[in-house]
Structures are given as structure tokens and as C-alpha cells.
């Protein structure tokens, strides 16, 4: 028996009145795990029952421990009829399964009902005793740590980054089972919640197994998604990056792990391990680029652009070179399709990394964005145990991504992510990432494949190395303008760079960055099945292209030259396709200064037209100038002699036209010595184009004091203060069906996004000066004429005075501080202080206050004791670091942020992953305040449940928080609505830096001895 | 393009004080938007009317959801759905239970019943306070009343404990509850010049001295019928007050009392002659007789209700018509109550002090224009 789960039900409070006669409730609790159920006594006539139950003990396999959620149901006892359910709490006990995370879950959990929402709270204590050796090979993977954070978590060091792990599991959706016709909505919702909870547990366990197989001990950048495929089933899939992590400043970190090649790698950093690529000749069923019929599903592979950011002349006339390029790539993708279904090969197959930020020196070069999409027809999943079809679909897409990366001379893809959009039986699968060359020192053998000829400069000049092109300039996969790097003058750089990753910490940036969005709608005819899929796949390349054009234009308009965190979402609806791209634009000092935008009219006959054109031109030029001032873009003037090339003719221009573009001459006669272009030409040949230019100018910059970006931090702002506000905003608009044209759609969509941003700025005005970070837009098309946009972001205040000093030295200083190496230095005083917390004679008044305020029902002191006891043996080194932040003034407050850090604070411990799925349904929509009232309350409840779980784990924040899904359906005629929300993040303990300093200065060496003595006693 | 759904949910619940005030004042969303526009918010922030509309709606929705919790403030502190910093929670509660002077003067001393609630339309029309706001204020009074009605112990403390009010607000509510319970008449025209503060001051003095809780008897007989010690006047005390009649009924006592007062105040009082005249038995504005008669009448519920009317009629108005300065009133009242101790034939010294100490405080507060 590998594990014992112990649960104690302490008390309830604020229960709803279940007995109208007495205005009271006779509540009892059922505790269920797997197939075992325990019950508490009935606590008669109280809305605040005190059960104080015995310890309910479940003896279970650790496989079950990983898969199953603990299910707690609160019921009202009824002597004569069936007991009424008040609500449920699902507790994921996974955080208790690895030693470094939480040791006890204890606290007040909201009692949740899918029909009524939160109905009171229940106090629960959960512990797990694991008996066995964790390293033995089994079906379970206890001990593997999971992180949503897409960088190496703050208190760890990456020993090896193994690479890509992925898995998916499928099942029938309970909502679509026959039994759903006869059961209540509540039962159906609960079946779904439970199933998804089970499936995510299983998925996580399976991924954990793969990680163990790779000899890793953690998954970083873990991203789990649900595909609600309706009739055809439910898919839960996850991707992540397997790593071997070491806790910082633990002695073990300095000993080379026996299976780690890091030591020898360090000695010969240039050595490339032999490639074990799966260039197999196995023949998988061939998908042609135009689509073919498979046994049960229709599939169309959509050729996609490589977003290198080589905006200028990237496309050819009538799609000539453009198409040819794509075809060639698709073909190469087909040729290379590994077709190997053997799992042991897979991890080597895809050198992908879901990370977006990297240890210093990891990222050598960045090629550009690679993306692939494919349109599929869904069919019922016949055998849930063999999810091969879905697996094959994704394998196909990943192959394509891989070949795109190869074409860019890159052996790896970083900042990798996958997504789907489903409408009826059509599904668009998308994947994107940034092609890159990585330093093999960090990688396990086998991951680095091909590109051996790739030069890797060890002594890269700081701040520009990653911009240098990884591909061969004479044999470029696409036309591009190259120049010598403006920073080091040694290597070639492109004129524009697009990436999906965060800005590397060592990058040199001029001025500040800003959020850029490209928004696009395309009408499509309603069609069925294959015709529909074909229509969609025909539209996709054009959408991609236009999104790219818009991004490029907006980038130029901002006077910047690089995009980070690029995320392009294509959403499919009944009668339209929506494209939304978000990215953070910056001016990289290493890249050339972008040229302006020139407008050219096609018919220069009309005088007034000419005048109009020149008027527009002036407006655009003014906007660029204004933006440069706004974002403080004033790169140092570089005398051309240093570069050693003549200034090119000013009339030499690249041309980029909308939808129908001609390949410019420069493509062939690339000015490699110096590709500086002074302008970028927009040709206005029809009203559409006019519209586009107008829309360029309608994007209003945020009000003064506000900045926004979709990356972790805003380039150019370093002095964050501690106030943060995470929020979710949802808007749904109904389109009038009368005048649905592409233009009207575009305008509506554009207005929707712009108004939403404006509202955010207004709402958060009290935080000025502040920056909206990690702005994440999601578009969905729930019905014919409805567009839903969901935004999650965090507003962080910063110190205006200090932030204005954007001198280079300042940046560098702060960057150094951020680098992991230096963190180790910081770690020492931290260790000291957290050690001393429990033993230190803290002001007793404060402790009293704490215990009085803690809602857990257990006094703080006692709680601390239970924590100690439950911590596994031999953890002496780690345990002391888990000192609860009792000195924290913000007791009870749980911060949430989509970022991986908390400004002005230090994360001292990761407690485990939070991954929750909720369904809420109502049949009294009007009474609950309409759709807005319903969803507002539901999202607030979801936040509350996340916070409660984090607090119960002993944490005070969630980092890398993400709302992955918010599916909202309404039927106002029936007065009904339903919503599904899926959120995840990492529960952590953080300590304010100011408090750290105070404590560390207060603690002389005497305390060190004290704590050392304490450590001996406890171990 | 119409907005079907538009929400903003922060991890920390955003509270806009300005919008909260508008909501409390009972304005509809559109009125609130118009008022905000008039306040110049669009110019200050560069926002559009649509943004303002959406923002106002959002806040109103939040307040609506919070209202249920505000009805039992401790719930607001323990709930998990809205993460609100403690200082903001206090602000939400304090503002929600705040009331308008004009409104409270209308309902002070009235029974907090459905009947009164029906009159809220009239009050709203009369005071210019929106009906919605009147309802909230009335319901607040009633809610606090219901909760503390049956409780033992200090009224203000009970209120503070169950509603987490500030000291000031808890004392105001204690006065409101006390007045509602004893149904003191405050609406008469004669009393219109008095502010809520005047009544609250008197209520506090009366709670301190004239109620059962004031005597401190309760612990000795814990299972007595009287649970709401701070809310009800001490019936025995009121009965005993009849004994004071001797001060005006017994001619000797009256004369002695008069001469003692006059001797002590001669030369110190600007209005000495008027004062002296007032002691004469047939004088219509006999102050002493008035004060003692008020005491003697308090055995009847009806007369208890008219306490303030009587005080104003029997004391405040006569003094005012003779243009007594406040200082003289104070001197007189002090001397008047102190000299009773020198009346050897008077046996009810303690009773007199309990009555007169409170009354003196009340009268001084009530004596103004």
C-alpha cells in the first residue's frame, strides 16, 4: 500500500438555509476518494456546524493519488426524503505528493455548487503519508514537480533542460452521453467536472512518467488544455518542458548529479552530441497539402507562413514566390514526417521548448516565428484508450514546425505553444514558436539535432547575440534585408525580428515597448463538413498574411523593430474567421532603425485624391514622430563610417502591399552590406486599403502614465513598486446581421478591442503610473453573431521618478540583479532569515494577531507544528525555507498574477500546481442579473476558489496564473446560461524584499547558530 | 453592434468611492453616469461616455453583489469571494450605514414598522432624498434594531460588535434604536429646531443614567425578564419620580429651595429677576414646577413619549422668551439641582440626582435657537 491519505473535516460556516421551517440546516459531509466514502455525523440545526471529525483514512495506490481528486460533499440531512446536496469541494492532492511542496492542505474552502455557486465554506485538513521509495519505476510519477511558469522557477537552477514532453487523453464528454437526457443539469455538470479532474490527473501522471524516463525531475512551462469537441468527445492535452532542476543554494546543487552530462559538457561546450534524429523512412498515411480523405477523418493541412519578421518583400506577386516557398516547406515537412509512432522516439523527435525565458547563455540565436495550422474534421473518438488520431494530428503539426525551424537554420523551437479552435465539427489546430539555436551545454544529448555546421560563438557580445541570423546569408530560406549588427558590427542581423518569447534579459533596448495588436475578420459561407473545412483552409493563408502585414505596419508606425511574445489566434465560427495577434513591440539596439511608411496612390490623376494622400502621409509621419517621443526611442546616432558602408540611395524602398503584393526588386539584389531602408510603402489602391490605413491611425495610445505589453515585463521600466492588480474582463458583442461585410466586421472587432483597452485604462486610473503586463486576449465565437473577447492581465505600479532613468547602466544593473547567478548571493541572507523565523522571539503581540486572524480554525502556532511533523524526513535543508510568512502584514490576502514573479518580493517556495476546472449553470438568468451578473459572479467565485486552495496549501500568491478557457453559452429565451472556466497557475510563498532586508539586518550571526542547532534537533 | 455582456473582475475588488456614493444615494446607472459626466470626469481622464457607462455598470453590479454581505458586516470580513483590503471594508460598511440628517429627523422616534415604511414616499418628496436611499436607510435602522433588540449589555457595544461600526456611528445607531424603542416624539413643530445630534446627545445621557443597564442591577438577577436593559427606561425609577412632586407640593420645601437658589445666584445672574419670578407658584412659566411635573408624569408611556415636547415647552421656551443667556441657564440648573441637597426635609436625594443630572445635560444641549 504505497500511500495513506488522511482527511479531517473540521467545521463549516455561512451554510445556506436548507430547512425553510427552522431557517437552519442539518449538515453532514461525505468524503470520497476513489471508491471509498466516509461520512461525518449530522450536525443538527446550525449554519456554522462544528463536525470536528476523526481522521478519515484512505489507503490507496499512488497512481490513484495522482489521478483522483479528493471529493468532499456537504449535504443537508433529511429524515423523510433524499438528502439535499449543498455543494462540493474538489481538492487536488498532487501538491502533497512531492516532498518540496506543501506538506498539509488545511483551510477554508468555498463549498461550490454548479447551479447555485458558492454556498458557505468548509474547513478541511488533508495529509498524505507516502511509504515507498519514490524512484522505483511504476505507473505513478510521484515526485515530478510541475510548473506553469515558462521560465526556470525563481528558487531553482536548471541542471539540464531535457526538452519537449507531451501527452493527451480522450474520453466521451458526459454532457453528450445518453444518460444526460435523464439526469439533472447538476449531476451532468458534476460528472463533467469530475471527469476532467480525473483526466488531468492522469495526464499529469503520464507526463511525469515521461519525465522520469528522461531522467528529469520537473516539468516547466506546463500547459494543459481542454478541447470540448462536443459529440466527438473530450480531449485533455498537455505540453511542457522536461528539466532537471536543483534547488538553489542547497548543497546538492554544487555536486554534479551522476546522470548529468553537465560537467563534461562544460569542459567541451562546443561538443555536439551525436544526433539521433528520427529521420525514419516509415511511411505514414500521406496527407497532401490540399487535403485527402482518411479512414474516418478529413484533414486539410494548411501551409503556413514563417514569421521571420522579414516584412519587406516577403511575399511575391500573385503569391508567386510566396506560394512557392510555402509549397516547398510543406513538402519538406511531408518528406521529413517521421511517421514513427514509437513513443520512445518522440521526445527526441521534437526539439521544442515551452519556455519563454531562459538561463543566461542558453539562447544563442533566434531565427523567427514558425507556425503551422491544420484544419481537421472531428469524428467520434471510438476508443478512448487509443487516442491515436489526435496524436497523429499533433505529430503532423509538430513535424511541420520542426521543418520550418530547420529551414531557418535552427535546430530548436522555443516559446512553443499549441492551441485549437473548434466550431461544430471543424477544428483548427495551431502551433507556433520561435526557431532558435540553443547552447547545447544545457541540453541532454539527442535533443540537439542537425545544424551541426551552425557556428556558435561562445563569447557573444552581450545584448545582441540572439539577434544574429542563424541561417546562411547566401542561402536564405526567404528574402530578407540583412545588415551588420548595430551593436557589435560583426554579425548580420535582420531588419525586423518577430519572436514568441519574452525579451531576453540581456537584450539592449532603446526606450520603452508597447502592446501591438493585429485584428482581422473574414466572412465565410456556412457550409458542412468537408466543404467547410476546405473553405476555412483556403482562407487561412490570407488571414495569416494580412495579420502579418498589419503587425508590420503597426510596428513601423511605432518606430520600432522587433516583436516579442507574439501570439496569433485564429478563431473559427459558423460564418466567420477571426484573427487576433498580440505582441510587444520594442526597439532593439542591435537592429537597424526602421524606415517610415510611405503612402502611394495608384491613380495619381485626381488632384483632390493626391491631396488626400499627402494629408494621410502627413498624419502617418506625425504619428511615427509622436510615437518615437512617447516611447522614448532615440537611438544613438551611428556614424556610417563605423559600419563601413555607404548610405544607400534614399529612394531605395521596399514595398509591401496589402493582399496583392509584388515582390520588390531588392529581394534579389539584397543590399547585404547595409540594408537600411528609409521607408515602407503602403499602396492605396482601393477602399479596403484606405480602410486599413485609417485603422492604423485609429489605434489610440494608452493615456499618459499607462503602458501595456503582453510579455512578462515592460522593456524600459525597471522600478516596479509592489501594488499589483490582476483582473479578467469579458465582453460579448452582438453583430447586427444586416450589414455583415468584412469591413463592418473588422471595424466592429477593432472597436471592441480598443474600447475594452480604454475601459481597462479608465478602471485602473488610480494606479497610475502603471503598466499592464502580460495582456492576454482570447477571442471566441460562441454563436452566429456573437463575438466574445476575454482579457486577463496584471496592472503593476512603478516608481515614476526612477523609471524615467532609462539609462543603459540602470538597465544593466537591474538585469544583473535579475540574473540567476546573482540570486545565489541573495539566497544566503534569505536562508538566514527564514531559518530564524520560527525560533526568533518575534513580537508576541503580532503572533497573537496572526492566530486570531487566521481563519483556519487552527491556531497559527499549532498549524506550524503540524507542518513540521508532516514534512518528510531528511528534509532538513529544505524544510527551514518553508517558514510561513507569518510576519507578513498581508495575512489572508492571496495575490494572483499571470507573471512568474511578484514585484518587490521574493518567492521562497513553490507549493505545487493549481489546475482547476469549473462549470456554472443557471436557469434563472434574469434573477441573477442577466449574463453580466451571472458571469461576473462566477469569475469572482473562481478567483475565490483559487485563492482558497492556495491559502490552504500555505501559500500567499499564485504566479503564472492563466485562464485557459472561458466558454460561455446563453439562452436568454429559456432564461438559461452555462459557463466553463479552466484556470491554472503555481501556488507560491513569497516574502516582501523590504521585510527580508529588515530581518536580515536584524539577525546577527548568533541567530545562525541558533537555527543550526534547531535544525539538528528536528532532523 | 450591441454589448451583450461586459464585465471586469479584479483579484482585489475595485471600489470607486464616488460611484459608491452615487449608488448609496439611490441614483440609477444612467443618472449616475450623467452626474459623473457633470463632475467633469471625461475631461480629466479623456474617457468616452461608453467607457463611463460600462465602468458605472460594473461598479453597480459589484455593489449589488456586496449588498447582501453588507447586511451582516461580519460576513463581509469572512467571505472569500471578494478580496477587499480591511480599510476598504470598513469604508464600505461605514458608508452603507451612514444616514442623512434630514432623513433621520423624519423617522427618529417613530416605530420602525411597515406603516412607517409606507410613508417613505412622502419623506423622500419632502427631503429630496431618493426613495431608494430612504429605503436603505430605513432598512438599516430596522435591521440594527432587530439584531440588538433582544441583546443584553451595552447598546452601543452590541451594535459595534455586530455591525463593525466606528464608535461614532455605533453611538448614533444606539440613539436611533433607543428613540425608536421608546417612541419619543421628535416631529412636533416645536422640536424642529433640534438636530439629530441634540437628540443623540440626550439619548446617550438617558441610556447612561435612566435605563436598567445603567443601575448595574442586572448581574444580581440574571434571569430577570428584562433582557434589553439598555433600550428600556428603568420602570421603577420612573415610578419613583413621582416622589419628587413634594418639591413643588410642599410649600416650605419650595420656599426654602427658592431662597437657597436665589441666595447663591444673587449678583451672578443677568436674568436674576426673571429667575426669581419663575419660582412663584402662580406664575405660568414656573420652571421648577415644570421640571418636577415632567418627572412626575413619566409614569405614563404617553408622557414619556412627549418628554422632549415637555422639556421644550416647560423650560426651553420660557427661558428663551426671557432671553436667558446659556451661561445663566447653566448656572441656574447647577444651583437648582445642587441646593436640593441642602433641603433637610427632602429624602430622595439619590433619585433627584439620577433625574436631574441627566436632565440638566439634556436641557443645556436643547437650549439653543
From TrEMBL, chain A:
<feature type="region of interest" description="Disordered">
    <location>
        <begin position="641"/>
        <end position="671"/>
    </location>
</feature>
<dbReference type="InterPro" id="IPR037785">
    <property type="entry name" value="C2_C2CD5"/>
</dbReference>
<dbReference type="Pfam" id="PF23025">
    <property type="entry name" value="YbjQ_2"/>
</dbReference>
<protein>
    <submittedName>
        <fullName>C2 domain-containing protein 5 isoform X17</fullName>
    </submittedName>
</protein>
<dbReference type="InterPro" id="IPR035892">
    <property type="entry name" value="C2_domain_sf"/>
</dbReference>
<dbReference type="Pfam" id="PF00168">
    <property type="entry name" value="C2"/>
</dbReference>
<dbReference type="InterPro" id="IPR057815">
    <property type="entry name" value="C2CD5_C"/>
</dbReference>
<dbReference type="Pfam" id="PF23028">
    <property type="entry name" value="YbjQ_3"/>
</dbReference>
<dbReference type="InterPro" id="IPR038983">
    <property type="entry name" value="C2CD5"/>
</dbReference>
<dbReference type="InterPro" id="IPR056430">
    <property type="entry name" value="C2CD5_YbjQ-like_dom"/>
</dbReference>
<dbReference type="InterPro" id="IPR056431">
    <property type="entry name" value="C2CD5_YbjQ-rel_dom"/>
</dbReference>
<dbReference type="InterPro" id="IPR000008">
    <property type="entry name" value="C2_dom"/>
</dbReference>
<dbReference type="Pfam" id="PF23128">
    <property type="entry name" value="YbjQ_4"/>
</dbReference>
<feature type="domain" description="C2">
    <location>
        <begin position="1"/>
        <end position="109"/>
    </location>
</feature>
Automatic annotation (TrEMBL), chain B:
<dbReference type="Pfam" id="PF05427">
    <property type="entry name" value="FIBP"/>
</dbReference>
<protein>
    <submittedName>
        <fullName>Acidic fibroblast growth factor intracellular-binding protein isoform X3</fullName>
    </submittedName>
</protein>
<dbReference type="InterPro" id="IPR008614">
    <property type="entry name" value="FIBP"/>
</dbReference>
Amino acid at each position: 500500500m504505497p500511500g495513506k491519505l488522511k482527511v479531517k473535516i473540521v467545521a463549516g460556516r455561512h451554510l445556506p438555509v436548507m430547512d425553510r421551517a427552522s431557517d437552519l440546516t442539518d449538515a453532514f459531509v461525505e468524503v470520497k476518494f476513489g471508491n471509498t466514502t466516509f461520512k461525518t455525523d449530522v450536525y443538527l440545526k446550525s449554519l456554522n456546524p462544528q463536525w470536528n471529525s476523526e481522521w478519515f483514512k484512505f489507503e490507496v495506490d499512488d497512481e490513484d493519488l495522482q489521478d483522483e481528486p479528493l471529493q468532499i460533499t456537504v449535504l443537508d440531512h433529511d429524515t423523510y426524503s433524499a438528502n439535499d446536496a449543498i455543494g462540493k469541494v474538489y481538492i487536488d492532492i498532487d501538491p502533497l505528493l512531492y516532498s518540496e511542496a506543501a506538506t498539509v492542505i488545511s483551510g477554508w474552502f468555498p463549498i461550490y455548487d454548479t447551479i447555485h455557486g458558492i454556498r458557505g465554506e468548509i474547513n478541511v485538513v488533508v495529509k498524505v503519508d507516502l511509504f515507498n521509495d519514490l524512484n522505483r519505476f511504476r505507473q505513478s510519477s510521484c515526485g515530478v514537480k510541475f510548473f506553469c511558469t515558462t521560465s526556470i522557477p525563481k528558487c531553482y537552477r536548471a541542471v539540464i533542460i531535457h526538452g519537449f514532453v507531451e501527452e493527451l487523453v480522450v474520453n466521451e464528454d458526459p454532457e453528450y452521453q445518453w444518460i444526460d437526457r435523464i439526469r439533472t443539469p447538476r449531476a451532468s455538470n458534476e460528472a463533467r467536472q469530475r471527469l476532467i479532474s480525473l483526466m488531468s490527473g492522469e495526464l499529469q501522471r503520464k507526463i511525469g512518467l515521461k519525465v522520469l524516463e528522461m531522467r528529469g525531475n520537473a516539468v516547466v512551462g506546463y500547459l494543459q488544455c481542454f478541447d470540448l469537441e462536443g459529440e466527438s468527445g473530450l480531449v485533455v492535452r498537455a505540453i511542457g518542458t522536461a528539466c532537471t532542476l536543483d534547488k538553489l543554494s542547497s548543497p546538492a546543487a554544487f555536486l554534479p548529479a551522476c546522470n548529468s552530462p553537465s560537467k563534461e559538457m562544460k569542459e567541451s561546450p562546443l561538443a555536439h552530441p551525436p544526433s539521433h534524429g528520427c529521420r525514419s523512412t516509415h511511411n505514414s498515411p500521406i496527407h497532401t497539402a490540399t487535403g485527402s480523405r482518411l479512414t474516418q477523418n478529413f484533414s486539410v493541412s494548411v501551409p503556413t507562413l514563417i514569421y521571420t519578421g522579414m516584412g519587406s518583400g516577403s511575399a511575391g506577386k500573385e503569391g508567386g514566390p510566396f506560394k512557392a516557398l510555402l509549397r516547398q516547406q510543406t513538402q519538406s515537412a511531408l518528406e521529413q514526417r517521421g511517421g514513427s509512432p514509437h513513443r520512445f522516439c518522440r521526445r527526441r523527435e521534437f526539439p521544442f521548448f515551452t519556455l519563454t525565458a531562459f538561463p543566461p547563455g542558453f539562447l544563442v540565436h533566434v531565427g523567427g516565428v514558425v507556425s503551422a495550422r491544420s484544419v481537421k474534421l472531428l469524428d467520434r473518438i471510438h476508443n478512448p484508450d487509443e487516442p491515436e488520431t489526435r496524436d497523429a494530428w499533433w505529430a503532423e503539426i509538430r513535424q511541420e514546425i520542426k521543418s520550418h525551424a530547420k529551414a531557418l537554420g535552427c535546430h530548436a523551437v522555443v516559446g512553443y505553444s499549441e492551441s485549437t479552435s473548434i466550431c461544430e465539427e471543424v477544428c483548427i489546430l495551431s502551433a507556433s514558436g520561435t526557431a532558435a539555436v540553443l547552447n547545447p551545454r544545457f541540453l541532454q544529448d539527442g535533443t540537439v539535432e542537425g545544424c551541426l555546421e551552425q557556428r556558435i560563438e561562445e563569447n557573444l557580445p552581450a545584448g545582441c547575440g540572439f539577434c544574429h541570423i542563424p541561417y546562411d546569408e547566401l542561402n536564405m530560406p526567404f528574402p530578407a534585408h540583412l545588415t551588420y549588427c548595430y551593436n557589435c558590427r560583426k554579425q548580420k542581423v535582420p531588419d525586423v525580428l518577430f519572436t514568441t518569447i519574452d525579451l531576453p534579459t540581456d537584450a539592449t533596448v532603446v526606450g520603452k515597448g508597447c502592446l501591438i495588436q493585429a485584428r482581422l475578420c473574414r466572412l465565410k459561407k456556412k457550409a458542412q463538413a468537408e466543404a467547410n473545412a476546405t473553405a476555412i483552409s483556403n482562407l487561412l493563408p490570407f488571414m495569416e498574411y494580412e495579420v502579418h502585414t498589419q503587425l508590420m505596419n503597426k510596428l513601423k508606425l511605432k518606430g520600432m523593430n522587433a516583436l516579442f511574445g507574439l501570439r496569433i489566434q485564429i478563431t473559427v465560427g459558423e460564418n466567420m474567421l477571426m484573427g487576433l495577434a498580440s505582441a510587444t513591440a520594442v526597439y532593439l539596439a542591435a537592429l537597424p532603425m526602421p524606415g517610415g511608411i510611405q503612402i502611394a496612390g495608384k491613380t495619381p490623376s485626381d488632384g483632390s485624391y493626391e491631396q488626400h494622400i499627402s494629408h494621410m502621409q502627413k498624419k502617418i509621419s506625425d504619428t511615427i514622430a509622436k510615437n518615437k517621443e512617447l516611447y522614448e526611442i532615440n537611438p544613438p546616432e551611428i556614424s556610417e563610417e563605423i559600419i563601413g558602408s555607404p548610405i544607400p540611395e534614399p529612394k531605395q524602398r521596399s514595398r509591401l502591399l496589402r493582399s496583392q503584393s509584388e515582390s520588390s526588386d531588392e529581394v534579389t539584389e539584397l543590399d547585404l552590406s547595409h540594408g537600411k531602408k528609409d521607408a515602407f510603402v503602403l499602396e492605396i489602391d482601393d477602399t479596403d486599403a484606405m480602410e486599413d490605413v485609417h485603422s492604423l491611425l485609429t489605434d489610440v495610445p494608452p493615456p499618459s502614465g499607462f503602458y501595456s505589453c503582453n510579455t512578462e515585463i515592460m522593456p524600459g521600466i525597471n522600478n516596479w513598486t509592489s501594488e499589483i492588480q490582476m483582473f479578467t474582463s469579458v465582453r460579448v458583442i452582438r453583430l447586427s446581421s444586416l450589414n455583415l461585410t468584412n469591413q463592418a466586421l473588422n471595424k466592429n472587432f477593432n472597436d471592441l478591442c480598443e474600447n475594452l483597452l480604454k475601459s481597462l485604462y479608465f478602471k485602473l486610473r488610480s494606479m497610475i503610473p502603471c503598466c499592464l503586463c502580460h495582456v492576454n486576449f482570447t477571442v471566441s465565437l460562441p454563436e452566429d453573431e456573437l463575438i466574445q473577447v476575454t482579457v486577463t492581465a496584471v496592472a503593476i505600479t512603478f516608481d515614476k521618478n526612477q523609471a524615467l532613468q532609462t539609462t543603459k547602466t540602470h538597465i544593466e544593473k537591474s538585469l544583473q540583479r535579475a540574473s540567476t547567478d546573482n540570486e545565489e548571493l541573495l539566497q544566503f541572507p534569505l536562508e538566514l532569515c527564514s531559518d530564524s523565523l520560527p525560533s526568533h522571539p518575534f513580537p508576541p503581540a503580532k503572533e497573537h494577531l496572526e492566530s486570531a486572524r487566521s481563519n483556519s480554525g487552527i491556531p497559527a502556532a499549532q498549524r506550524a507544528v503540524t507542518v513540521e511533523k508532516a514534512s518528510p524526513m531528511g528534509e532538513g535543508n529544505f524544510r527551514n525555507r518553508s517558514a510561513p510568512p507569518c510576519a507578513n502584514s498581508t495575512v489572508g490576502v492571496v495575490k494572483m498574477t499571470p507573471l512568474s514573479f511578484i514585484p518587490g518580493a521574493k518567492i521562497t517556495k513553490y507549493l505545487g500546481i493549481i489546475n482547476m476546472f469549473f462549470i456554472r449553470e443557471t436557469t434563472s438568468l434574469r434573477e441573477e442579473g442577466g449574463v453580466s451578473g451571472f458571469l461576473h459572479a462566477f469569475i469572482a467565485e473562481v478567483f475565490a476558489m483559487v485563492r482558497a486552495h492556495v491559502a490552504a496549501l500555505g501559500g500567499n500568491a499564485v504566479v503564472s496564473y492563466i485562464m485557459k478557457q472561458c466558454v460561455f453559452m446563453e439562452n436568454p429565451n429559456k432564461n438559461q446560461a452555462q459557463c466553463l472556466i479552466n484556470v491554472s497557475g503555481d501556488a507560491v510563498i513569497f516574502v516582501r524584499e523590504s521585510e527580508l532586508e529588515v530581518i536580515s539586518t536584524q539577525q546577527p550571526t548568533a541567530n545562525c547558530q541558533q537555527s543550526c542547532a534547531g535544525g539538528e534537533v528536528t532532523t | 453592434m450591441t454589448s451583450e455582456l461586459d464585465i471586469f473582475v479584479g483579484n482585489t475588488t475595485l471600489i470607486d468611492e464616488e460611484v459608491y456614493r452615487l449608488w448609496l444615494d439611490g441614483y440609477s446607472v444612467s443618472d449616475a453616469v450623467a452626474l459623473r459626466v457633470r463632475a467633469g470626469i471625461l475631461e480629466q481622464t479623456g474617457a468616452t461616455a461608453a467607457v463611463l457607462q460600462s465602468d458605472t455598470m460594473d461598479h453597480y453590479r459589484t455593489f449589488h453583489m456586496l449588498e447582501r454581505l453588507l447586511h451582516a458586516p461580519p460576513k463581509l470580513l469572512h467571505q472569500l469571494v471578494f478580496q477587499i483590503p480591511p480599510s476598504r471594508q470598513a469604508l464600505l460598511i461605514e458608508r452603507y450605514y451612514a444616514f442623512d440628517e434630514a432623513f433621520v429627523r423624519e423617522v427618529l422616534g417613530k416605530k420602525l414598522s411597515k406603516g412607517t415604511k409606507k410613508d417613505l414616499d412622502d419623506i423622500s418628496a419632502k427631503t429630496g432624498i431618493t426613495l431608494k436611499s430612504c429605503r436603505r436607510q430605513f432598512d438599516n435602522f430596522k435591521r440594527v434594531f432587530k439584531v440588538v433588540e433582544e441583546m443584553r449589555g451595552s447598546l452601543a457595544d452590541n451594535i459595534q460588535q455586530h455591525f463593525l461600526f466606528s464608535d461614532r456611528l455605533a453611538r448614533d445607531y444606539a440613539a436611533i434604536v433607543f428613540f425608536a424603542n421608546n417612541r419619543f416624539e421628535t416631529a412636533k413643530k416645536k422640536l424642529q429646531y433640534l438636530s439629530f445630534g441634540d437628540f443623540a446627545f440626550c439619548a446617550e445621557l438617558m441610556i447612561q443614567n435612566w435605563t436598567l443597564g445603567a443601575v448595574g442591577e442586572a448581574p444580581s438577577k440574571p434571569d430577570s425578564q428584562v433582557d434589553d436593559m439598555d433600550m428600556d427606561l428603568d420602570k421603577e425609577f420612573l415610578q419613583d419620580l413621582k416622589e419628587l412632586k413634594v418639591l413643588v407640593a410642599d410649600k416650605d420645601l419650595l420656599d426654602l429651595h427658592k431662597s437657597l437658589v436665589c441666595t447663591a445666584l444673587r449678583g451672578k445672574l443677568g436674568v436674576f429677576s426673571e429667575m426669581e419670578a419663575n419660582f412663584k407658584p402662580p406664575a405660568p412659566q414656573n420652571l421648577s414646577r415644570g421640571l418636577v411635573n415632567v418627572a412626575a408624569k413619566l409614569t405614563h408611556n404617553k408622557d414619556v413619549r412627549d418628554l422632549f415636547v415637555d422639556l421644550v415647552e416647560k423650560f426651553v421656551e420660557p427661558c428663551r422668551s426671557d432671553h436667558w443667556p446659556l451661561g445663566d441657564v447653566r448656572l441656574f440648573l447647577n444651583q437648582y439641582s445642587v441646593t436640593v441637597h441642602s433641603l433637610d426635609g427632602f429624602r430622595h436625594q439619590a433619585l433627584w440626582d439620577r433625574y436631574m443630572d441627566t436632565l440638566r445635560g439634556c436641557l443645556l444641549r436643547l437650549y439653543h435657537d
